Amino acid sequence: MVELWSGYAWPTIIIVLQIVAIIIPLLVGVAYLTYAERKVLAAMQLRQGPNMVGPFGLFQPLADGLKLFGKETVIPAGANRVVFVFAPMLTFLLSLIAWAVIPFSSTMVLANINVGVLYLFAISSLGVYGIIMAGWASNSKYAFLGGLRSAAQMVSYEVSIGFVIITVLLCVGSLNLSDVVLAQRTVWFAIPLFPMFVVFFISALAETNRAPFDLPEGESELVGGYNVEYSAMTFALFFLGEYANMILMSAMTSILFLGGWLPPFDIAPLNWIPGPIWFALKIALVLFMFLWVRATVPRYRYDQLMRLGWKVFLPFSLFWVILTAGVLVTFGWLP
C-alpha cells in the first residue's frame, strides 16, 4: 500500500496542484477583466465606472458573482433540459482545458507536447458547439438565430486563423509552443509578419464574438442572442467562458507574435524580470486592445462580416502563406 501511494499518488497530487495553480489565477483574471473592461470603457466615455462596492469598486466582480450565484436558474418549458444546461458547461470547460499547453516560461508548462498548436486550434474550433447547442436547446427563435450566426462566423474566421498559424509554423519548423517562443529570441514575429499579426488579432475578435463582431449577441435585433433564455449560474458560465476565451486568444497572440515570456530587448535589467511577468504584461496589452476596439468601433453588418472573412482575410492570408514559403525557400531560411 505504501509503495502504491509513493508510486502513483504523489505525481497525481503534483499534477492536480499544477492545474489548480493555473485555474485559480485564470478565474481571478476573468473576474477582474470584467472590472477592467467597465473601467476602461468608462474612461473612454468620460464616466466613472464601478466605484461603490469596495475601494475604487474593486469588489464589484465579487458582488456580481454572488448575485448570479444566488439567483434561480430558469429553464424554459419547451427547452431540451439536458442540452440547455450542458451547453454553458461545455463552453466554460473548453476555455479552461486549452491552458494545458500554454507555456508561461521555459520551464512552466503543464503539458509540453509537440503538437501544442494543433491542440489549441482543435479546442478553439470546438468552442462553437456550446453556442450552437445553447441556441438550439433554448427553443427560442432569437437564441437559434444567434447560434446560427455564431456557427457561420466562427467557421469563417477559423480558416484565416489556420493560415496565419501555418505562416508562423513555416518560420519555426515546430508545432511545440515553447519552440515558437524561442524562435523569437532575435525578433518577434509581429515585425516581419505584421500583416498576419493584424489578421490574427481581428480574427480573434470575431472568434470570441467581441465587438465589432458581436453579432451572435446582437441586443438590438436578437435581444441577447444565443444566451437570451439563460439566467443565474448558467448565464454566468457563458459569461466566464467568453472572457476566459478572450484571455486565451490574447495568450495565443502573445506566443505566436509577441515573444511569449521573452523580454522585448535582451538587456540585463529586463532579463531580471521573470518570464511569467512578461507573459502576463503582454496578455494585458492585447486585452486592452480588445477593450479599446469595443469602445471605438461600431458593430458590423452581417454581410460585411462575411465579406471581410471570405473575400479579404482568406485570400490575403493564403497569399501570405505562399509568399512566406517562397521567401524562406529562396533565401534558405527554412528551419
**Shape by Cα distribution:** globular
Order of helices and strands: HHHHHHHHHHHH
Largest sheet: none
Average predicted confidence as pLDDT: 88
Question: Could you say which structural class the secondary elements and strand pairing correspond to?
Answer: mainly alpha
Unreliable runs: none
In helices, the fraction of residues equals 55-70%
EC number: 7.1.1.-
Pfam family, one: NADHdh
Family: Belongs to the complex I subunit 1 family.
Membrane topology: Multi-pass membrane protein
Explain what this protein looks like in three dimensions.
The chain is mainly alpha-helical and 335 residues long. The chain folds into two domains: 1-70; 72-331, no CATH class. The chain has twelve helices and no strands. Helix 1 (2-44) crosses helix 9 and helix 1 packs parallel to helix 11. The chain is globular, with a radius of gyration of 21 Å. The model has no long low-confidence stretch (mean pLDDT 88).
Short key terms for the protein model shown above:
0% strand; NAD; 335 residues; 12 helices; NADH_UbQ_OxRdtase_su1/FPO; membrane; mainly alpha
Helix and strand arrangement:
Blueprint: H1 2-44, H2 60-70, H3 81-97, H4 116-137, H5 141-172, H6 177-182, H7 194-207, H8 219-222, H9 232-257, H10 268-271, H11 275-296, H12 302-330
Helix pairs in contact: 1-2, 1-9, 1-11, 2-9, 3-4, 3-9, 4-5, 5-7, 5-12, 7-9, 9-11
Family: Belongs to the complex I subunit 1 family.
Membrane topology: Multi-pass membrane protein
GO biological process, one term: aerobic respiration
